[in-house]
Amino acid sequence: MSSSEIQSLVPTALLLFYVAVGTVLFWTTGAKSYRDQEMAERTTGASTASMRVFFSWLMSPWLRILVASQIPASAVTSISLALSLFAAVALAAGHFSLGGTLFVLASVCDYFDGKLARAQGGGTAQGAALDSIVDRYSEVALMTGLCWYYRQNWVLLPALLALSGVLLVPYARAKAEALGAKLSDVGWLQRPERAVILVVTTGLTPLADLVLKRFAPSASELHWLAVAGLLMLAFGTQVTAAQRTLRLLQLLAHRCGGSEPNRLRRSGPLAVVSGVIATGFDATLVALLSGAVALSLPFATALGCVLGALVNFTLNRKWVFQSSHESISQQGSRYLLVSGTSALFNAGGVAVVGLLPDVSGALAWLIVRAAIFGTWTFPLFRSYVFNSLTLAHKNESPTARASSRAAIEAALRQ
Fold this sequence. Notes:
Layout: H1 3-28, H2 37-41, H3 49-69, H4 73-92, H5 96-119, H6 125-149, H7 156-178, H8 191-203, H9 205-215, H10 224-255, H11 260-291, H12 297-320, H13 328-353, H14 361-385, H15 388-394, H16 398-413
Helix pairs in contact: 1-5, 3-5, 4-5, 4-6, 5-6, 5-8, 6-7, 7-10, 8-10, 11-12, 13-14
């Protein structure tokens, strides 16, 4: 092991040593009886109460020093931003151990500022606002550093997805709170979990690289542990944002006496199954007509599309949305409109995605099909084609519609 490799591991080694000693002391000196009611009762993501209490105990000596020094909580908040910026620069330069360690210190400062404010007589609205904004800057800075480091290979994509995710998750919560809803306990990856993932995967990257060099020397150049962290964040933050969005819609619908999110949860998976079944019928007919009957492929494809549409329409009408009480002609005309526009969007989307290098036609088709189904086809099937209640609302008198709008606005102000 070279001297440079040893030096790169020093920050990580010091942190691991501190945590290891703390763990031994926590379980051998009776410190496990330590209590922190606030941390124990906090509902956040995937962490457990025992994990949060252990972290509180591990930080308690430093917190006592800060309280005794009477340092303003706002100063601790500010230095956490500076440490995050330094961590971002270190990661952008490829010094993962240093970057991870600096982000640990920044995250600890973020923990200290709230505790310190309460110990000094209670936090202020100004301090809370500063803390929230600094948290966003810190995460964005760190993700920007990783994006810069991986700017010339495929890891940039999950890094950008993770960057957008760390912005969407708190935005969903802020929007909910502005509407009077509580989402602080909703979602897999909230800020503490995101910080732990970033700290562990970036800080331990040099150690993981040393192991990889023995088995796959070229793999260590990509820093696979850091890549794994970005992949977890890219997936987990998007899922968390979706969880919060759906929960917010459920709360708002409940206030207004609706059940839209419940219908979404029930009909969404069924609509996917309906589409798969219809596609199966389509493909089977095309194969039979073009093979056994020897029809031309364009004609066989057209007949297959017709059969697939009929199967999909019937399943959606009778099984997915259970709206067979309305006439077939009314629903059929709306179905043709939505299906026709969906076909145009899919064709155009495949052409656009196909502009990307190294993207196969099959992958482009799957990406576009999923995007158009989720943003256009399924929402219109649910609220336009197979939902006579929505259409009936459109036919209400202006007075009735105004009354409905007033009821919704009043519910949102509650």
